[in-house]
Amino acid sequence: MNAAESLRGLLFLLPWLCGVAFFLAYPLIYSIYVSFQKIGVKPDGSGLSYTYVGWSNFRDAFILDNEFPVEMLQFVYRSVLTVPVSVIFALLVALMLNQRFPGRMVFRTIFFLPVIFATGEVIQELNAQGQGTIPFLQQYNVTDLLYSTFSPSVAKAITGILDQFVIVLWYSGIQILIFLAAFQTIAKSTYEAAQIDGATPWESFWKITFPAIVPFIVLNLIYTVVDLATYPFNPVLKLITLNMEDVDTGYGYASALGWIYFIILLIPIAVLVIWSRRQTREKR
Q1: What pTM value is reported for the model?
Q2: Backbone angles phi, psi at 132, to 5 degrees
Q3: Average pLDDT of the residues in 139-148
Q4: How is the chain split into domains, by residue range?
Q5: In sequence order, which residues have a C-beta less than 8 Å from that of residue 268 and are 6 or more positions away?
């Protein structure tokens, strides 16, 4: 890569770099600073007072606050159930939408529409109207049937997946598009050669399609984790907001919770990135 190409790349990145510098860098640095502070209002009401408390806010999140560890564990549990189901669901739908049939573009649009509409106030209103759950679970006592058929741990896992299925459906549009784009990277001649050699569709999927889309699977896993982490009804985010508005805890403690939450989310993302790089090196 010569100097002209490097400069051209930097010019394309310039708007993003300016946005990070002006709108993201200061809030991040400030949140790190206040996470080590106890913030209150000055007696004369002229502004905020800052008292350095060191790591107390981070310790209190696990020692004095029983709610944050519980909500964090519940979020991890829901993510372990929802993330793989979301990616598998998106992969299956993408495989169907990649076939040639009349009205294919209409069905692709239908699966992507929730990404546009189910955001912000819209999804909050839908959830308030009871549209965030599957009605037949209560109507036909499916939950009781599961607990009477399976062990409590298995029944709890299946019930958790069914409870999250509407969320999976609403939030799988981007993943479906990514998988559809992944399928376009595979040359049709590869499938034709496999078909001539007598390979079945099942063998073609595992020998050709799956190895080619592994990087896209990792990308979708990372995207789904981040998407669930910013879900409007995420109880961890609600807890952080409540502590931010609380006079006894305030911005300092809420910032500490936010950074703990960020670090915990960073762990699975880092594992996925490292695993993806190893897979890429092995292929080379």
Answers
A1: 0.78
A2: -90, 0
A3: 71
A4: 72-251
A5: 225
